[in-house]
């Protein structure tokens, strides 16, 4: 570090002036020159002296003396530096105007505006956006005509930042310039106001932006449903029955949040389905939201997804006992592959749901001929096998394979013991018994069990 820089940092302007011409261009560890430090401190005479030697020099981050002066509001220094350093950008493409705007230095902004307006940082931020985030009303009023409607890399406008940061005093001037401007993803300021529960912005924006959709098809009403904004949803009700591109509705979002008041408000969307065929009732069932299930069941019961899944099957898969009990009228419905709710309950080893569904679905087979008992046997669900064996033991799939054979393949001795009396003599379509499957898979304990119950000794 030079003696001049050292003197400036001590605030010794007289000493710095004496040595200013002795080490021109010298830098500190950050790459900053004496001119930079003089501008940062607002030492105008020093800036004037050093300017011919060190103008347009940038530190390690690309900052200039003009940026340092602007950030600290040193207007006279900025006037000296503007001609040489105006429009220069840092490594992240910030300008002196951006620094002045972010700090609320109104007079400096007035000076720099003609030369540096409408530039963007590497993140797409403008001076107007930075002034908005800082809630600098006078600066915003200077910049809004020049930089209004510009969008950053995140797709946001200054108005959107005003909403995010709840800038009450900036709303009117920014709405006048930027309302109806959408982000790259189609998000609007109204949608952000709903998400933030920012009532003032919502009231000012609703008549200007209601009905607009994001690129994914989502609406402000959907965001109200997602965030539990009942009063806002009531005001946005004209967006009812608009679906997101994947088919999701505001009602579905309300259902997932278990907000029964919103579900009642949005009930006019009942019957709509996603592109995969999922309904609000299915979401309520899989999440176990009982009040929502009760509200929707009369309107959506019996529906299937494109893969054939019903609300009952979803409830069973997720262990939602109360929801399944309400939806038991869907018993017997199968997926596209023939699977039933009872099969799902068996896979989960859910005794309560097995008990609920056995009378209605016992004996049903999927497209491969598999039963709930067979699935339970394949996955080692002992208690499920004990309940299901009463009604499904002795059944065989499309290849003639039985639950006992499946248990033998996996080596589940306890399940084999449970089934051996009913299924020991069964043969598959190739004439093989469970003994064959135990031998093929090296399941010694099951093989010994089968031999013992047959009064034989394994080879």
From TrEMBL:
Q: Which SMART domains match?
A: ANK
Sorted keywords for this record are: ANK repeat
Q: Where are the ANK repeats?
A: 61-93, 92-124, 154-186, 276-308
Matches recorded under PANTHER family: ANKYRIN REPEAT AND SOCS BOX CONTAINING 3 (PTHR24184:SF11), SI:CH211-189E2.2 (PTHR24184)
| Name of the protein described by the UniProt record | Ankyrin repeat protein 1
Q: Which domain of life is it from?
A: Eukaryota
Give one Pfam family.
Ank_2
Locate the coiled-coil region(s) and give their ranges: none
